[in-house]
Automatic annotation (TrEMBL):
Organism: Lentzea flaviverrucosa
Protein name in UniProt: DNA-binding response regulator, NarL/FixJ family, contains REC and HTH domains
Domain HTH luxR-type: 147-212
InterPro entries with a match to the protein in the record: CheY-like_superfamily, NreC/VraR/RcsB-like_REC, Sig_transdc_resp-reg_C-effctor, Sig_transdc_resp-reg_receiver, Tscrpt_reg_LuxR_C, WalR-like, WH-like_DNA-bd_sf
Pfam families in UniProt: GerE, Response_reg
Transmembrane segments: none
Amino acid sequence: MTDLASTRVLLVDGSQLITEGLRLSLHRTHCFRVVGIAHTVAEAARSLRGTLVDLVVTDFDVPGAGPLRTVRDTAQYRPSARVVVLSNADSPSWARAALDAGAVAYLLKTSPVAELLPLIAAAVRGAPATIDARVGSLVRLPARMPPPASLGRLSAREFDVLAEMAKGMDNARIAQRLFISNDTVKTHVKAILRKLGARDRAHAVAMVLGESSEAFVTT
């Protein structure tokens, strides 16, 4: 798919301001055709089922379900479509989770439109997976078995806690790095273990990273 002018785009974000700004920016380029706008996971799923799309530009955590649900719905309903995730968070763990779920790019909403549009165009043309440079380089995105489906039920903050667990951080260090209390960390860890069906912290990390924590290490 290289003819950008015929690229049908679905925009998904809980903020109407974001979707309208993207729609206008894409329209001005004369390179993309916005065929749908959704502000919840349910609206996005309806659009994916009923509208032919080539590209989905979505927030990381759309209202209505867990993070990245729209990325997975795209794979189910429009497997040939490419997905670009736009996020406010410069989080390596979020970026990795997005690519693992099937997105081809993780970009930041704070980027100037002049920078975003070429990256989106490159994604449509089939460029390798792209992560905004400000997020930091992931040392490795191993070609292993995909994470368990239950990973999609983790909240955004639980992703962050899991990333710190993968680095070998104890609860006190996680609390310090994420600016939350020890009790809050304990609550998140319990939720992660429950949602993943893991026996303990090490098992949770092994389930997601294929027994390698390097994928969460940043440079």
